[in-house]
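Risk register update: the risk of archive-format incompatibility is retired. Evidence:
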Amino acid sequence: MLRRPKPTDSEADLLREQQKFLTSGAPSAASVVRRPDKRRGEAGGGGGGEEDHNGENGGSQRDVVTIEDLPDQLPSLTPAPPKKSRFKASRVTFEDEDAEARLDRQDTHISAVLSKIVERDTSSTPISLPAFTGMAFPKVMHRSATSSQVLPPSAGGKKSIFACQIAAQRLMEGKTPLRCAPAAAQKNEPREQNLPPEISMDTDQPTTVSSPRLVSGQGLVGPGSSGDIVRIHRENQAKIQAMSQSEILEEQKKLLSQLDPRLVEFVRSRKTQSVPSSASPSKHPEGKSIKENFPLENRSAESDSPSAAVLFQKPQEVEMEEEEELSPPPAVTEKDLPVKPQKEWVHMDKLEPEKLEWMRDLPAPRSKRTKQAMQARFDFNGTLIPPTEDLPTHLGLHHHGEEPERAGYSLHELFLLSRSQIFQQRSLALNTLANILSKARAGEYLPVLKGSVMSTLLDAGLLFLLRFALDDGVEGVMSVAVHALKALLVCAEDEECLDCTFSWFRGLASFPLLPSAQEEEEDDEGLDEIMKETAKEKEERKSDHDVARQDVVKGLLKMKLLPRLRYILEVVRPSPRVVQDVLEVLTRIARHSSSSATRVLDCPRLMETVMSEFLPTSWTAPSFPLPQSVYGLPLASTMKLLRVLATSGRHACARLLNSLGVRERLSCLLSAEPSELLLEPSEALRITTEAYRLWALAAGYGQACKLYIDLYPALLKALQSVHRVLAPSDPLLPLQLQRVLALLSLLTQVTHTAGCHQELQAGMVSSQGDECPPPPPPVSWGHVTGLQATLLGHFKGFVKSLDNPVQKNSSLTLIPAYLLYLEAYYYQLSRQNCFKPVETLQELELLTSEVLLPLLSHNAVQDLIKNLKSSSVVCNAQSRHLGPESIPSLPSLACPGWRDRPGLVVPSSPFPLLTGLGLLLETITGIHKGLSCKFTGLLLSEPVIGYLRSCSQARPTLSHTRAWLLRHEHHLLYLLLRLAHRLVPIEREVAKHASLYHQVALVLLPWLLPGSEYLAHELLSTIIFSKDFISEGHSGGPEAVELGELKLHEETHHHASPSLQTVGALLREACAQLPSIRGCFLTHLAHLESSVLVSRDALLSRNPWINSHLLPELTGPTLPSDWPFLPLVSLYEQTGVSDGGGLAVEDLPQGALRTVTHCLQWLLLLEVWREEALKVILPVAKLAHLSCVFLCSSDLFLERPVQKLAWGLFRLLTRRSRLDSLDLNVPPPGLASFQDLYSALLAQYEAVSFGDRLFGCWVLLPLQRRYSATLRLAVFGEHVGMLRSLGVTLEQLSIPIERFTSPPEDSLPLLRLYFRSLVTGTLKPCWCPVLYVVVLSHVNSFIFSQDAAAQEVEAARHGMLRKIYYLTDEVLKNHLLLFRLPQPRSDVGFDMYEQLPPIRAKRLESIVGLQDSSDDKGD
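Archived output:
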């Protein structure tokens, strides 16, 4: 074996090793061969090559070195090796481009470039010696001495100073400079000009400017070059001349596909550098840059920020005009320069037009025929700029970023600008982002932009950008950051809507603006309860980014926003607008939740600064209408912030009143007229309005009532001036109306609080210290009785003012507040010891006849009532208007644009007036029963009936954007139902619509939101289970159902299971048990008792017992939509899946049988007479819930009452229309799939069914052919033993047998199980008649099927036929071969052929005959 040479080997050692290698005859690693030159006409063959190599001319031949491992053909590039390129981010790609095609195009093999290594022929290269001079060193060349000798740059391209010196020296010596031969280029110029531009090898360069050197031959001829090169070049030219343009283009594409794109780009860039500078401006056709050819969607990939915010405009629907052909602009010449360059200027002797292009006027933006999205660009006002709009440059919207011809800034560019070193640029960017956020909140971008602007900005890190900007040392940047933060968090129209509804019934309460709870993965599953982290610890462990992604407000609080805002207010003392923005941001944070409001109160020195600077007890009048500073002046925004903080709870309200001095501020502001407050008139009205609202809220807790006694004269003075201040010509009329509404809300709450004084006084005396009730408020009933006469007189006056067109709108605005006050007065009056029934009844009769009835029949009110349906949120849940952008982490109320569309809050809405009227009617009809009949017309009016019908069929969705409005509409629906509850038993006309009212009550119950639990309790107690509202029960309803069943049986000749009562008899019994059914459901809802009590205190205005006006978190409706099934589900949960199968009825919880019976009775009643109310429940959910009857006990389903009702429900669920809508592929609520439930049912059936026919029908229902084969595999695979006891007959099964047999089964594993169960005797007609017929049908269809099938299926058919033919059981054999069709009336359940049809007989004979012949051959 030869050894490897070592560094220490001498030359003799190497020669000796070489001799050993040659004598061994081993093949060499590289062989020198002579390849024939086809261009010289040499013949191939190894011999010729050897002769030439050894011949005389061997010295002039060139050596060819071949590499053995290098293939001649390009290898396959799929699958391609994995690559990681740092240039990938800068590469432009398209969404619809095939990745494999791109890889094949760019990734080339080394053989595409390095195929053969050919030694260069240097035989004819002249060798010249350097010239000898007499100087020891070359002479130093100076610029000043040789500048005149240097060639112009255009002659030879860009050259160094030294090269220019050498060229000049060679010219002086008379030698030819080393330049490209111009003759070759000129010679080939005509041919090159005839070629189209796309055929040129350099596709980016127009041929009219410079011919490609590869075609022209430029640079080939020079001193020292051989004639072979010229000859080869001429041959190439001849071949190109003979080729067509398509062939040239194809060869060019083939060559470019084999070369590395970076190498091609390098060659082109070198070519570009050598092009004369005068042609450089037109190096791209039509003046386009390379980047202009790329779609704007992919431009974002070039950005250096990974979290860049990129938003695209939607493609325009109308095709744009064809882009005009524009001539390239002329090149920049020396004449165009404002300053002419001088020769003495260093590096200024060469004109560089490409660097001067930015001085040109921008080209007009051209419309492009494209359906790809365009990058969105905005002006400084946040307005979206269309991509085709040509704006002047003096607007400052053009810049040197991407797409310089398009005006405006993209979101990514604004983010970059906001981090600029120049604070003016930071301010400009943040201000533009604030304007964009404001318009995005208003929903202006939804029709024209893809995706959500706010979501895009938040995902890109806007929250952190704003938080960093708040810490900016420049006050201007910090002020703009506050404004942008306000634009992100606060929607002015949301706040305006909430202010408008403050005077409505329970308008002072609101939902917390918390994001919907998201389920998080538990990291500590399996740990002990002591070891698990608390929610607070988990929250603290999260990063700022994780918290802000789920909840923007929580993220800001975690970023220490409150101390920074305190610093801005206390130290920086910014301008009035910034102060206003900070107060609005604090208000929005306080609306988030009670914990956020508490953090605002607890922030050190924050509230003290706000109170001392913006709500002082004394101030001087500002010298200007718009003062330069608002420090030392009271602001309405500050009072509103206090009101929102007080909403979070009575303790927060007490802190404000007592610790922060709000009580003194209220006295200071409300003891004088607004005109006497030394404030601008509109600001004075706003701040007094907010003061009244804050006081009303405090009175809603039973607090600040001592202030009522102190300011009683001022309140009377304000009441007496109501008509005076509401002058129609007053420009401040809207503010005056809001002030009067706030004053009425205050008096209403004080009246409710005073009405509780007597009850609290008696409770404090009778209490023995067990549970101390709240202390009685300072104000008693005697303090408020004197207001009623004054307010009633105002009310009558406003009712009369409805006839005056000028005052009509103002009167309609104020009347609802007067109605609420009168309701509060009469409700609390009826609970006082001083209540005089006779006088009160007379007073109520006068009020009804003189005021209420004329009000209700007035044309203005009737016109309002006609708007019920159009203003409803429930009826218009599917409205198509584009609302504002909604973000899960930052919920809002979706109020932008509320004035331009119908709704609950617009002036044309009847909801505030009808709610106030309904509340008053509920109270006075409770005191005076006889007044109910006078308001029959309201319930029977066409608008109200049409509205209720629409509500009974509506499906409203629940979200923050609708919940605050849905709550008010639920109040009106509840009050209308309460009025119907009083009238249905006594008014025949109203009773005709009892079923409609009952239907509305059923659909309203699962709509009720948190905080309305008391309304749900009242509906369940009065209307839901009332016999008066289920009119079918006493008007021949059960009998009608019985007749319908008899008619159905006669038509279908279908006989139900014997000894079972009809559905009509079951309904009659259910109607008799309605009180017990009501008790059953109220018992199962007892866990809501605490919520019901809290809701009762709030809705009945028991103010001293109210802890918070902030409603519970919006996690969903109070009751689930499937509440009628609750007793069944709760019983199933109590017993459990594992234990339920073994429990007998005696072991179940006490009263379980009665509970199940009542639940099934109620479900039967709803299914027959209130089917619409149960449509919200999926059919698969109904089936799953009813399955609990079989799963929760071993013999509960065998009890006779349960059997009757379950059979009735099974017949209802298996009607044709119901079967079509039953989809078992949809997972039931709370389960991963129906398969899990069905497995439990099969196991329970095998264990405890005792062959029960009802349970059997329940198990057979999912085995229909249209459902998944997995369900049938579970029966015939895992639970095949149950076939022995599944004795349901075809008559007992209320499902048509065709649903089980059609279409034929196509699952081969299932067909094999079918066949095995038949031949092994597991499935017999006496044990399981239904499945026996089903299996016979499918196996018969399979073995005689003529459809083409796979080889495995065909083999299975043949095998089954052979086995059937050799069966010893002749009965089964005849059933399998002669089966025709299922026939329920037949004794065996199906029809049979007398003999096999010819086609089937022939098939059987062919298969069996083949088997026999093969057996004979084997013998």
